[in-house]
Amino acid sequence: MVAAALMTAPSPETGARKSGATRGRILDAAARTFRAKGYAGTTLNDIAAAAGMQAGSIFYHFASKEELLGEVLRIGIGRVFDAVRQSAAALAPDAPFEQRLCAAIGSHLAMLLKHGDYSSADIRIFGMVPDPVRRVHLRRRQAYGAWWRQLLAEGRERGAIRADLNPSLVRMLLLGAMNWSTEWYKPARGSIDAMAKTLCTLTLEGLLPRIPDLAPAGRGRRFRAG
Amino acid sequence: MVAAALMTAPSPETGARKSGATRGRILDAAARTFRAKGYAGTTLNDIAAAAGMQAGSIFYHFASKEELLGEVLRIGIGRVFDAVRQSAAALAPDAPFEQRLCAAIGSHLAMLLKHGDYSSADIRIFGMVPDPVRRVHLRRRQAYGAWWRQLLAEGRERGAIRADLNPSLVRMLLLGAMNWSTEWYKPARGSIDAMAKTLCTLTLEGLLPRIPDLAPAGRGRRFRAG
């Protein structure tokens, strides 16, 4: 009897895992629904229906639609930032700027498009979210922006990139080229990896043809991503 | 008396002008409200309040929220496309590719940001709009995309741009860098013109430093926008 009871009653860990899985299912449903209907246009009933559960069950995990929104935004940018930092940490300390930039572009795009509902919800509803959520999220965006600012500043200090382009504009234009991809990217357009390499080469070298390599060895004029 | 009647009764043209002005006021209010609240989250009452009129007055000009949405989207992309075509038509027929690209980037950005509510409404709510409106709007987006495809194809035919980058990816990344600016651009970041020049130089030349000009005269290695 004791053994039978042990077999049917979930262990505390299983309970926690299940609860975490339910939480994740609600968040996925919320991201999908916010993306499709906007923030004001989404009700907790919509999210519950998308998650395949009763609206009442959501309250066990989240106090309000606003709390769900905050979590969706936090997870969306957090996953991208973590992926970018991890890919940077995996490089050799003396890795050249070109390699750092391409690793960051590759991991930003891969994570952004892997969790497209979260990223796209962010893009589509950021302007519509209540002020308290927006303020917190803006600070996260700024922290992530600061990471890219630092990357470009280091490249400039090392003399790896030209000094005549406003680094703040370069950063915003580059992040824009990446973020907008949630609105158009489909696998039929090519792999995410191919897109990352194209953006990296374009950002480093530009569209104009380059004349044959006349630079000293080790300072290749054509950096090849990947 | 006749003279007095002529002075007080609006002429047919004045009536049409006033009606056009009211229509424009409703559309501006609709764009602003769609941008802020999404499509599902916006009611005709919200739009009427933003336009400073009664909801009933809107029906004199537009049959439904869907019709208003269709007009906002049509106007948003139409203005940008017209501006880009006009700036291209103003160039000499033999203008070099660099000049064509920079003119297109400059006019796209200027019109996009001048009418930020329309562009941003498009960006934020496109994924949320009813299917019939979306289908029509997608065809307009595709026509505009085809203009850029043609520009890049001509650059390639003339040998003005390198042949090893997927032109479709280049186009989507470039449009993304521009379109995303409605989400972050403020005059405090610098002028729209400065942003256009930065994007043009970045797209043509890239971030890497270039070695001193060794190309034949007339084929400058550093193209300067504007």
Salient structural properties:
homodimer; 226 residues; mainly alpha; Tetracycline Repressor, domain 2; 10 helices; 0% strand; disordered N terminus
Care to describe what's here?
Two copies of one chain form a homodimer. Chain A is mainly alpha-helical. The first copy, chain A, has a domain at 65-205: Tetracycline Repressor, domain 2 (Orthogonal Bundle). The first copy, chain A, has ten helices and no strands. Chain A has helices at residues 2-8, 12-37, 44-51, 55-61, 65-89, 97-114, 116-125, 131-157, 167-179, 192-205. In chain A, helix 3 crosses helix 4. Chain A is elongated, with a radius of gyration of 22 Å. The N and C termini of chain A lie far apart (60 Å). Chains A and B meet through helix 2, helix 7, helix 9 and helix 10 of A and helix 2, helix 7, helix 9, helix 10 and helix 11 of B.
Itemize the secondary structure elements and their pairings.
2 copies of one chain form a homodimer.
Chain A: H1 2-8, H2 12-37, H3 44-51, H4 55-61, H5 65-89, H6 97-114, H7 116-125, H8 131-157, H9 167-179, H10 192-205
Care to give the gist of this entry?
Two copies of one chain form a homodimer. With 226 residues, chain A is an all-alpha fold.
The biggest sheet of chain A amounts to: none
Instruction: Assess the beta-strand content of chain A as a share of residues.
Output: under 5%
| Secondary-structure element string of chain A | HHHHHHHHHH
CATH topology of the domain at 65-205 in chain A, by name, is Tetracycline Repressor, domain 2
Q: What structural class do you assign from the helix and strand content of chain A? A: mainly alpha
pLDDT averaged over residues of chain A: 86
Q: Quick one: CATH superfamily of the domain at 65-205 in chain A?
A: Tetracycline Repressor, domain 2
Instruction: Kindly provide the name of the CATH class of the domain at 65-205 in chain A.
Output: Mainly Alpha
Question: What share of the residues of chain A lie within helices?
Answer: 55-70%
Query: In oligomeric terms, what are we looking at?
Result: homodimer
Shape of chain A: elongated
C-alpha Rg of chain A (nearest Å)? 22 Å
Task: Summarize the largest interface: chains and residue counts.
Answer: A-B, 61 and 61 residues
* Strand runs of chain A, count: 0
End-to-end Cα distance of chain A: 60 Å
Q: List segments of chain A where confidence is low: pLDDT < 50 over at least 5 consecutive residues.
A: 1-9, 213-221
Tell me the number of helical segments of chain A per DSSP (H or I, 4 or more residues long): 10
- What is the CATH-assigned architecture of the domain at 65-205 in chain A? Orthogonal Bundle
